[in-house]
């Protein structure tokens, strides 16, 4: 089978690997759509792992079913995720499934940028769901990234916040805008340096959009009766955006760090102001199986518009182009690889 083998963001090669075999409890998936995630192009992290086949935002058709599998049959349309928790450890029981030790070890074989992949038994049992007929394969590939936004806002209790500010309107930010809108947030604000993305944020539900170089705290006060944001969702690891987040949160509010600077990069923490103003800091990584189920339901209900987010649909042979588009982050939003398309 053909795979897109990652060596670097500028070196993704079309290579051949054997088609995996489905063992006991496992599925063989014929991949139909796989989104390129921002984490796929974090070269400082990925090059240490290279060469490998990436791709974890995956939908496809069941091509083969291993012995002992219940609930799935050849031809079923499914969506799946690469990292799954054990659902039994202390972290899982306390609502922190994404830091479960098993979740940090589970993977696809080989990855979503391939014609086929093998789903290990644990992924079949905890991270694979039937794709509703109402959803296309491309729409279904958003289940995993949307699930991450759902989990993050659950952690931050977003429905209880009157004013939510989303900093950064790439894919993560635009999904967070829509999740917050679906939860009935009273005032929803988004910032970015890209005017096209700000226009899209307004289309998708933001009540106000500000250019990131504006005096965002002042504009927030104008729009919100003198108050800042009750919840600030940081969807970029850029240092200026993080500084802006600290300046834009209301007393007693929360900062939700959905994105992070590169590993080892330090950001000054205004601890005195955080302490004095009782500002809560929340982080969120990944999504649990329950978050993914909620994500499927949100997409199937039509509450989340992902069609507007897809800027490129490429063949497997064009995966290298896709990586360059996402790494450049100017002329694309969501890039989808369709391995069965020629």
Please characterize this protein's 3D structure.
The chain folds into 2 domains: 2-147 and 287-338, Medium-chain alcohol dehydrogenases, catalytic domain (Quinone Oxidoreductase, Chain A, domain 1), CATH 3.90.180.10; 157-283, 3-Layer(aba) Sandwich (Rossmann fold), CATH 3.40.50.720. It is 29% helix and 25% strand. It has 12 helices and 15 strands. The strands form 3 sheets. Strands 3, 4, 5, 6, 7, 14 and 15 form a 7-stranded mixed beta sheet that branches. A 6-stranded parallel beta sheet has the order 10-9-8-11-12-13, with helices on both faces. A two-stranded antiparallel sheet has the order 1-2. The radius of gyration is 20 Å and the shape is globular.
Outline:
The protein has 342 residues and is of the alpha/beta class. The chain has helices at residues 43-46, 90-93, 121-127, 137-140, 143-155, 171-182, 195-203, 216-223, 239-248, 271-276, 289-301, 319-328; strands at residues 2-8, 11-16, 27-35, 57-65, 77-80, 116-119, 128-130, 163-167, 187-192, 208-211, 229-234, 249-257, 280-283, 310-315, 334-338. Helix 9 links the parallel strand 11 and strand 12.
Radius of gyration: 20 Å
| CATH level-1 class of the largest domain | Alpha Beta
What would CATH call the architecture of the largest domain?
Alpha-Beta Complex
CATH topology of the largest domain: Quinone Oxidoreductase, Chain A, domain 1
Strand-residue proportion:
25-35%
**Ends distance:** 14 Å
Which outline best applies? globular
SS class: alpha/beta
What's the average pLDDT? 94
CATH superfamily of the largest domain: Medium-chain alcohol dehydrogenases, catalytic domain
- Number of distinct helices: 12
What series of H and E elements makes up the topology? EEEHEEHEHEHHEHEHEHEHEHEHEHE
Major beta-sheet overview = 7 strands, mixed
Tell me the helix content: 25-40%
Poorly predicted runs of 5 or more residues: none
Number of domains: 2
């Amino acid at each position: 089978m053909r795979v897109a083998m990652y060596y670097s963001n500028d070196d993704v090669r079309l290579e051949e690997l054997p088609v995996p075999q489905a063992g006991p409890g496992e599925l063989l998936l014929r991949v139909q759509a796989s989104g390129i995630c921002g984490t796929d192009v974090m070269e400082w992290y990925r090059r240490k792992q290279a060469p490998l086949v990436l791709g974890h935002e995956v939908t496809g058709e069941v091509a083969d079913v291993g012995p002992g599998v219940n609930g799935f049959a050849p031809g079923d349309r499914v969506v799946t995720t690469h990292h799954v928790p054990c659902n039994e450890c202390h972290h899982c029981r306390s609502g922190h499934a994404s830091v479960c030790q098993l979740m940090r070890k589970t993977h696809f074989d080989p990855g979503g940028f391939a014609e086929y992949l093998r789903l290990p038994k644990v992924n079949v049992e905890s991270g694979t769901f039937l794709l509703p007929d109402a959803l296309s394969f491309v729409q279904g590939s958003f289940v995993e990234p949307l699930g991450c936004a759902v989990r993050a806002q659950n952690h931050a209790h977003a429905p209880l916040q009157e004013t939510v500010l989303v900093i950064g309107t790439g894919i993560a930010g635009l999904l967070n805008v829509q999740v917050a809108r679906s939860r009935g947030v009273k005032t929803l604000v988004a910032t970015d340096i890209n005017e096209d993305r700000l226009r899209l944020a307004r289309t998708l539900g933001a009540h106000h959009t500000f250019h990131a170089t504006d005096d965002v705290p002042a504009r927030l006060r104008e729009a919100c009766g003198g108050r800042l944001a009750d919840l600030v969702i940081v969807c970029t690891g850029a240092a200026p955006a993080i500084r802006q987040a600290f300046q834009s949160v209301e007393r007693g509010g929360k900062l939700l760090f959905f994105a992070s600077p590169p590993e080892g990069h330090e950001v000054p923490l205004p601890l005195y102001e955080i302490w004095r103003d009782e500002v809560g800091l929340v982080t969120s990584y990944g999504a649990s199986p329950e978050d993914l189920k909620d994500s499927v339901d949100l997409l199937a209900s039509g509450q989340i518009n992902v069609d507007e987010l897809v800027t490129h649909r490429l063949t497997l042979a064009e995966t290298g182009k896709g990586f360059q588009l996402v790494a450049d982050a100017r002329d694309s939003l969501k890039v989808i690889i369709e391995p069965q398309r020629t």
